[in-house]
From TrEMBL:
Keywords: Ubiquinone biosynthesis. The keyword Membrane does not apply. Residues 28-123 form the SCP2 domain. Required for O(2)-independent ubiquinone (coenzyme Q) biosynthesis. Likely functions as an accessory factor. GO terms for biological process: ubiquinone biosynthetic process. SUPFAM superfamilies: SCP-like. The gene is ubiT. This is Ubiquinone biosynthesis accessory factor UbiT. Pathway: Cofactor biosynthesis; ubiquinone biosynthesis. The keyword Electron transport does not apply. HAMAP family: UbiT (MF_02231).
Amino acid sequence: MPSPAPILAAIDRQVPMPLKQLVAEAPLNRLFAKAIAEGEFDDFEGRRVRLEINGGQPGATIGFWAGRLRVVDGPGEATIRGSLIAFKTLAERRQDPDQLFFQRRLIIEGDTELGLGLKNLLDSLEWDLSPRRVLFP
Protein backbone atom coordinates (compact mmCIF):
# COMPACT_ATOMS: atom_id res chain seq x y z
CA MET A 1 0.00 0.00 0.00
CA PRO A 2 1.47 3.40 -0.94
CA SER A 3 2.25 5.93 1.75
CA PRO A 4 -0.41 8.61 2.32
CA ALA A 5 2.36 11.14 3.17
CA PRO A 6 2.52 12.77 -0.31
CA ILE A 7 -1.25 13.35 -0.34
CA LEU A 8 -1.18 14.67 3.23
CA ALA A 9 1.74 16.95 2.31
CA ALA A 10 -0.17 18.40 -0.64
CA ILE A 11 -3.21 19.06 1.57
CA ASP A 12 -1.01 20.48 4.35
CA ARG A 13 0.53 23.05 2.00
CA GLN A 14 -2.94 24.28 0.99
CA VAL A 15 -4.37 24.74 4.50
CA PRO A 16 -3.73 28.19 5.99
CA MET A 17 -2.17 28.39 9.47
CA PRO A 18 -5.24 29.95 11.15
CA LEU A 19 -7.35 26.97 10.04
CA LYS A 20 -4.72 24.51 11.31
CA GLN A 21 -4.75 26.33 14.64
CA LEU A 22 -8.53 26.28 14.81
CA VAL A 23 -8.68 22.55 14.07
CA ALA A 24 -5.78 21.37 16.24
CA GLU A 25 -5.40 23.59 19.29
CA ALA A 26 -8.72 22.96 21.05
CA PRO A 27 -8.45 19.14 20.80
CA LEU A 28 -4.80 19.22 21.97
CA ASN A 29 -5.70 21.36 24.96
CA ARG A 30 -8.68 19.12 25.82
CA LEU A 31 -6.54 16.00 25.51
CA PHE A 32 -3.93 17.35 27.93
CA ALA A 33 -6.18 19.62 30.06
CA LYS A 34 -5.50 17.80 33.33
CA ALA A 35 -1.71 17.80 32.81
CA ILE A 36 -1.75 21.47 31.81
CA ALA A 37 -3.83 22.39 34.89
CA GLU A 38 -1.40 20.44 37.10
CA GLY A 39 1.58 22.34 35.66
CA GLU A 40 3.08 19.37 33.83
CA PHE A 41 3.80 21.50 30.75
CA ASP A 42 5.22 24.50 32.64
CA ASP A 43 8.83 23.52 31.83
CA PHE A 44 7.96 23.90 28.14
CA GLU A 45 6.75 27.52 28.44
CA GLY A 46 7.85 29.46 25.35
CA ARG A 47 9.43 26.38 23.72
CA ARG A 48 8.62 24.87 20.32
CA VAL A 49 8.80 21.26 19.12
CA ARG A 50 8.17 20.24 15.53
CA LEU A 51 6.58 16.90 14.72
CA GLU A 52 7.32 15.80 11.15
CA ILE A 53 6.47 12.90 8.92
CA ASN A 54 9.61 11.62 7.15
CA GLY A 55 10.41 13.97 4.29
CA GLY A 56 9.44 17.12 6.18
CA GLN A 57 5.79 17.32 5.17
CA PRO A 58 3.29 17.19 6.64
CA GLY A 59 4.42 18.50 9.95
CA ALA A 60 3.33 20.72 12.81
CA THR A 61 5.20 22.93 15.23
CA ILE A 62 3.68 22.97 18.68
CA GLY A 63 4.50 25.41 21.43
CA PHE A 64 3.30 26.12 24.96
CA TRP A 65 2.46 29.70 25.96
CA ALA A 66 0.31 31.15 28.73
CA GLY A 67 -1.02 27.78 29.81
CA ARG A 68 -2.04 26.56 26.35
CA LEU A 69 -0.63 24.31 23.67
CA ARG A 70 -0.49 26.20 20.40
CA VAL A 71 0.19 25.33 16.78
CA VAL A 72 2.70 27.80 15.35
CA ASP A 73 4.35 28.43 12.02
CA GLY A 74 8.04 27.74 11.53
CA PRO A 75 10.70 25.42 12.85
CA GLY A 76 10.95 23.96 16.31
CA GLU A 77 13.88 24.02 18.67
CA ALA A 78 13.65 20.24 18.53
CA THR A 79 12.19 18.10 15.75
CA ILE A 80 10.73 14.65 16.25
CA ARG A 81 10.59 12.88 12.89
CA GLY A 82 9.21 9.52 11.87
CA SER A 83 6.76 7.64 9.71
CA LEU A 84 3.03 8.09 10.02
CA ILE A 85 2.85 4.53 11.37
CA ALA A 86 5.47 5.27 14.06
CA PHE A 87 3.52 8.35 15.25
CA LYS A 88 0.29 6.35 15.25
CA THR A 89 1.97 3.59 17.27
CA LEU A 90 3.26 6.20 19.73
CA ALA A 91 -0.13 7.92 20.09
CA GLU A 92 -1.97 4.63 20.59
CA ARG A 93 0.68 3.48 23.08
CA ARG A 94 1.06 0.15 21.33
CA GLN A 95 4.83 0.19 21.83
CA ASP A 96 7.17 1.69 24.40
CA PRO A 97 8.31 5.12 23.12
CA ASP A 98 11.94 4.34 23.97
CA GLN A 99 11.81 1.34 21.64
CA LEU A 100 10.56 3.54 18.79
CA PHE A 101 13.56 5.83 19.30
CA PHE A 102 16.11 3.03 19.81
CA GLN A 103 14.83 1.33 16.64
CA ARG A 104 15.24 4.71 14.87
CA ARG A 105 11.56 4.68 13.87
CA LEU A 106 11.36 8.08 15.56
CA ILE A 107 14.31 10.47 15.56
CA ILE A 108 14.97 13.60 17.63
CA GLU A 109 17.03 16.39 16.07
CA GLY A 110 18.01 19.83 17.33
CA ASP A 111 17.59 20.37 21.07
CA THR A 112 17.50 16.70 22.03
CA GLU A 113 17.07 17.53 25.72
CA LEU A 114 13.83 19.37 24.88
CA GLY A 115 12.64 16.54 22.62
CA LEU A 116 13.41 13.88 25.22
CA GLY A 117 11.75 15.96 27.93
CA LEU A 118 8.55 16.11 25.89
CA LYS A 119 8.73 12.41 25.05
CA ASN A 120 9.16 11.55 28.75
CA LEU A 121 6.29 13.83 29.75
CA LEU A 122 3.93 12.35 27.18
CA ASP A 123 4.98 8.85 28.20
CA SER A 124 4.16 9.61 31.85
CA LEU A 125 0.66 10.97 31.16
CA GLU A 126 -2.60 9.10 30.87
CA TRP A 127 -4.53 10.15 27.78
CA ASP A 128 -7.59 9.04 25.91
CA LEU A 129 -7.55 9.42 22.13
CA SER A 130 -11.18 8.44 21.66
CA PRO A 131 -12.90 10.87 19.27
CA ARG A 132 -15.51 11.69 21.91
CA ARG A 133 -12.81 12.78 24.37
CA VAL A 134 -10.68 14.73 21.88
CA LEU A 135 -13.30 16.35 19.63
CA PHE A 136 -16.06 17.32 22.03
CA PRO A 137 -15.82 19.49 25.14
